[in-house]
Inverse folding.
């Protein structure tokens, strides 16, 4: 049986995606890490545009990995 773990993926306003190398044994550990990093980057990574509808914020997702199967379990935009 495949071991289950969690990964954190950050998406930046410019479209850059960072799949964090660290893995987490529980979803709550991944969530704590994601929230900690969001606190550090949210103010510096906000996309600035003169058009308010173009403004975007960074966000992160948590993916559960079990063998070759990956499932989205959390998206902090929701």
């Amino acid at each position: 049986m495949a071991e289950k773990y969690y990964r954190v993926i950050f998406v930046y306003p410019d479209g850059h995606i960072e799949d964090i190398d660290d893995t987490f044994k529980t979803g709550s550990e991944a969530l704590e890490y994601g929230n900690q990093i969001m606190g550090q980057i949210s103010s510096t990574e906000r996309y600035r545009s003169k058009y308010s509808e173009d403004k975007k914020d960074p966000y992160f997702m948590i993916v559960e990995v079990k063998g070759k199967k990956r499932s989205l379990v959390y998206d902090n935009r929701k």
